[in-house]
Amino acid sequence: MSAAAKSKRSAGRRGAGRETAESLAQRQREISVSEFFLKNRHLLGFDSPRKALLTAVKEAVDNSLDACEEAGIVPEISVDIEQLDRDRFRVTVTDNGPGIVRSQIPKIFGKLLYGSKFHRLRMSRGQQGIGISAAGMYGQLTTGTATRIWSRTGPRNRAHLLEVHLDTRKNRPMIVADREVEWRPEFPAAGKKRGGGTRTASRGTRVSIELEGSYVRGRLSVDEYIKQCAVVNPHLMLHYRVRLRRPGGDNDGEAEGEWTSFQRVSEVLPKPTVEIKPHPHGVELGLLMQILKDSSARTLRAALVQDFSRVSDRAALEICERAGLNPRARPALIAQRDSEALYRAISETRLMRPPTDCLSPIGEEEIVAGLRKEIRADFYTAVTRRPTVYRGNPFQVEAGLAYARPGENAELGAEDSVRVMRFANRVPLLYMSGACAMTRAVTGVKWKTYGLTQPRNAVPVGPMVILLHIASVWVPFTSESKEAVAHYPEILRELTFALQECGRRLAVYLRRRRRQAEAARKRSHIVTYIPHLALGLKEILSLSDRQEAAVVRGLEKLLDRTHLEI
Amino acid sequence: MSAAAKSKRSAGRRGAGRETAESLAQRQREISVSEFFLKNRHLLGFDSPRKALLTAVKEAVDNSLDACEEAGIVPEISVDIEQLDRDRFRVTVTDNGPGIVRSQIPKIFGKLLYGSKFHRLRMSRGQQGIGISAAGMYGQLTTGTATRIWSRTGPRNRAHLLEVHLDTRKNRPMIVADREVEWRPEFPAAGKKRGGGTRTASRGTRVSIELEGSYVRGRLSVDEYIKQCAVVNPHLMLHYRVRLRRPGGDNDGEAEGEWTSFQRVSEVLPKPTVEIKPHPHGVELGLLMQILKDSSARTLRAALVQDFSRVSDRAALEICERAGLNPRARPALIAQRDSEALYRAISETRLMRPPTDCLSPIGEEEIVAGLRKEIRADFYTAVTRRPTVYRGNPFQVEAGLAYARPGENAELGAEDSVRVMRFANRVPLLYMSGACAMTRAVTGVKWKTYGLTQPRNAVPVGPMVILLHIASVWVPFTSESKEAVAHYPEILRELTFALQECGRRLAVYLRRRRRQAEAARKRSHIVTYIPHLALGLKEILSLSDRQEAAVVRGLEKLLDRTHLEI
Questions:
Q1: pLDDT (tens digit, 9 = 90+) per residue, A514-544?
Q2: For the whole model, what pTM was predicted?
Q3: A contact test, residue of B14, B35, B96, B116 with most A CBs within 10 A
Q4: Torsion over CA of A423, A425, A431 and A432, rounded to 10 degrees?
Q5: Is B552 on the interface with A (CB under 8 A)?
């Protein structure tokens, strides 16, 4: 055994000895949030190469869409996936968004928990400030490469190209390269699928990440994500390309994938959402204390009006009186001494529900249009529920249905489980359906009432697609990877109501279809007898052949007009 | 409308306007990890009052057990739950552990992501440095109170009492009170359940948290957690008390709960575990680069030996040669330029599996003893698999079974689903069983082969308890709340093998029991005829009554001796 190996045996394995409070204290250390998530990267959606590829695409596209919509730009985005080696891919996402100011680029892409969306109550796709930097961190971990970002903020500004590493020990960006470049976002010319030219935009951002991944088609694939993205974002022009290496595995040239373009069907952006203040009924005691302490208002009454939503001047006074507190007291003082009385008084005071202009639902028409575009079926319907509240957070639920006639759509088997498409703030959710409140709501509805078969505690069976969407200022996901919505009772209830309404409409359609089928059956029965009837009439009334033919035509016409009533 | 209300309307709702790169940049902000988890507290197990109470108890007990075992102290712990108001509880956990050095107390209880267990590869209950400070943060959020900690590190040291808040904006502790006190950990005198005195220890820690909670009995309760804790920690003396307010809800005096003590059945601590280095085959490219960069070794060869486990001097040389690298090169230089070649060479080099003295399984005998103690049944068995590896991390799986005769144990119905008890590093897991690899393994085994009924894709049916334990230096939980184990194929395979072995033994037992039942049936049949036989013999052989009685006795005895072979 070498000296090094020996020293390793003695020094390398601590912990078998007996610890004391002092020896334990010496080993206490701070853990950086990036070290934490690097070790726990399955929490962020990077647990398998296949899912990692999807998650990286998803985080980049979500960011692009948010940026475009906030800047009022009708979005155009390209997603380019290139296989570099057996399990190595480069993901490049380009948008025509507002671009990113140079000084912010390193932090946005090279630091976890950094962003503009966490500290506000407003609906957006991103909400945590983790996604895209986590994708870069995963790329760095598995391939050692830096995230590359091109960005241009306007036609007269020059573009910046940065390469950014994430220092996981300190959770901060390390800039590997930084230079000004001639760059504009480029997109394949729309409409021309083959060899067409390209178009450029005057500003935008491109991010490129190399990572260990795996490209697999199917229900949990990037393809599916892209397709569902197009369904719920009718205003999005989306280009998608996957270039795989030749199956032989040798590096002798690349197999060229081609661009697929999902055209936009609407030039109108979703209604812009506004930021709201927290609603008093959703605020816990500890948070109430914090808000009062931080308040810039000089009196308790003003703080209540200013720092919360839906507290009118009169309501503020009522709260103060009920709590037995001086409305002119300093908020910070109340925070220290009388917050419990205030908290109780707030919970006993009736207040308007939170404002809902912070939400931007897809809308019933758009859902039906989106479903029509991507799913061939016979019956479509959609329901947008009115906004409501869980734990003080406004949210709104939507449901859509597409039902195909038997044999109409090969992808929807009459004997298969219904396909459920889940969306949160317009983002498709593919993984972890079993843990999601939306799946729970679907299995909880009694679909037999509406004419479908349904195994116990399961998704119903039939040639159908169900679309569910929850829009909220804060979607309560069950994990950082944002794949499933937590089971808040208020959310489950709204989902159930929306599904039941869709179900009732489906039942009407199915009954009508059954009646029509029945009528058609009867009609074909009668049609058989028309010639015999005409012949009988001809003999009784001594009609000519021409008259006989006229009788047949007339009877058939009569049947046509009345067949719905038969 | 008042002036305040007006200004609110204009200033309070930003975001409806059009953003530019510049305006977006102004709103980018760092998010502290405690702000993140405060808003996402369901990730930490604080999503409902009921679960919050359990999580707080669990985090405190886990910490106490880890501390005792690391210090080589046979643990004694008391858990005291007191209802202060309808939905307000105080949780107090006291241990006889090594105590905590005064200077470390604020950070351990008032800062997320701080601890001694994250940065090492060694089996322990805690691994993230989040749990107990998150419980305190939740208490602070819901009741505004500080976490109180008493600690004494030895008989001659004075005790400290600290009250600590967590500043969520900065994720750092705020000390509310700090003084030296006369304090020793106190425990109810063992054995005396009523009015008995107390005993004290010379050192230890007590932590007390007030929080919004809800006490509910049942499968997901603190009661169940405590009971399961006793099952897998035979060396633990555990005292438990719940004091609820009178059902009337008035504050006129407290209903006194009484201490329940779970005696230890063993004075022997689990085998102490040692810390290991990462195994090269479980290290990604990016991490390899980081380790080389941080290495204190002066040559690549030495770094490989010193910073990894299972790399002998010879193996290090082999790796260098295969990669075409100079064994004497500076590690940091290799990290920059040749890490990919090195990475490939490592993956192609055969190495011994990681050492497994970092793991401390419960053991087959202890599992059976634990099950016997808490579950009345007829047949017990347990399997401890040999250690193996997922993603470079050593882990080890254990399974136990307890099968009751029909009617033997009222809690185990013959028609009910089998009860599955899940443990990770000796910690009971109660919630999220549906998402756990252990549940998946149970449903995946073909229990019909072993004589049980089993609905498709479900847990088998029968009067049985299954215990599963995974021990690892890093248990891959599906969320920070540590309630379910992720579906790594290696882990699923080991679980399945362990269950199958238990299943085979169960099948032997069930066959034997069936044979015995059959034999008993036959025997009772024959017994009926013995007097007739004796009477016949008596007549044929002209025996006396005494001889006839002797024949009956003799035949019965004969039957007794041979009944197993019938």
A1: 988 888 887 777 777 777 777 777 777 788 8
A2: 0.83
A3: B116
A4: -90
A5: no
